[in-house]
Write a structure and sequence with these properties.
The structure is a single chain. With 279 residues, this protein is an all-alpha fold. It has a domain at 14-166 and 175-200. Helix content is 73%, strand content 2%. The protein is built from 14 helices and 2 strands. Strands 1-2 form a two-stranded parallel ribbon. Helix 10 (199-208) runs parallel beside helix 13 (240-266). The longest helix is centred in the middle third of the chain and has 33 residues, at 134-166. The relative contact order is 0.11.
Length: 279
């Protein structure tokens, strides 16, 4: 084992590039495999998931409709039908959308396997105590990603669709939305939220490397809050309620990141800095 560790330490820059190349190849295989699985369930993916937020009986609209009625807010979520249609304007449009949507679904499905490959790639640079957290890393990272995807799909996507399709510059304009535009909104919003929810994991590794400390995060909390509000304003409709709904989980993730950084800093120096040569 010691010989193996010495060989890992002696890996050249080209060796690391070779490892990275195989990581990307294996990740691509996982995504392709997930895409093939998604292809066989394409009817459910499109009719129930992708086009779910198009229907006025979508669970999010029903929830916000009840909230709006209870507090006497704007009842735009209580519409019988959303005022837009989806159209395809190119010959190969539906085929292209079907293939790329399956690949996107394949990526989401294969995230745990991709994270495992990433862990194997970075683990030689970690120390023996940290390598024991492999399963914890995979489970927590996958959970946060899927939680972010669900948040983007069930919260931000319906809020955005409801606002954008009800915004009219004139009664003359009719909303016939291109299929690529609609599906692009659903996919981009969901995956972007999944990646944003990985913030605690990113902060953990930055803390291990000494690039971030809890003192730093606390000191710049006010600036982080401003950035979070700006981000929420960008990815949500321009109304206060939507921005608050999106900002709250992001602020919670930031606070969790502070405690994670504090946990890393409290670990004994021997655990963080000293590799175990007996492995």
């Amino acid at each position: 084992m010691a010989k193996q560790k010495n060989s890992e330490k002696a890996m050249s820059f080209l060796d690391h590039l070779e490892e990275l190349r195989w990581l990307l190849i294996r990740a691509s295989v996982f995504i392709l495999g997930g895409g093939i699985i998604a292809f066989f369930f394409r009817d459910f993916i499109f009719n129930k998931i992708i086009f779910g937020p198009k229907n006025s009986d979508f669970v999010t609209y029903q929830f916000f409709c009840k909230i709006a009625q209870y507090f006497n807010f704007d009842d735009s979520f209580c519409q019988q039908e959303l005022p837009f249609e989806i159209q395809n304007r190119t010959m190969d449009g539906q085929f292209s959308v079907m293939m790329w949507t399956c690949i996107t679904a394949g990526f989401i499905i294969s995230v745990p396997f991709i994270l495992w490959e990433i862990w194997k790639f970075i683990s030689p640079a970690l120390y023996s105590k940290e390598k024991k957290y492999a399963k914890f890393f995979i489970v927590i990272s996958s959970f946060l990603f899927f939680l972010g995807v669900l948040f983007g799909y069930y919260v931000i996507t319906p809020l955005s669709i409801n606002f954008l399709v009800n915004l009219q510059v004139s009664d003359v304009v009719k909303n016939d939305i291109d299929i690529n535009s609609y599906i692009g909104l659903v996919k981009t919003t969901s995956i972007a939220c999944g990646l944003i929810f990985e913030l605690p994991i990113i902060m953990y590794f930055l803390s291990v490397l000494g690039l971030v400390t809890p003192q730093f995060l606390r000191e710049y909390r006010k600036y982080a809050i401003v950035l979070i509000l700006i981000l929420a304003a960008i990815i949500t409709p321009p109304d206060v309620i939507s921005q608050i709904i999106v900002s709250i989980p992001l602020l919670i993730l930031y606070e969790i990141s502070i405690y994670i950084s504090k946990f890393v800093q409290k670990k004994p120096k021997t655990e963080v800095l000293a590799p175990n040569n007996n492995d």
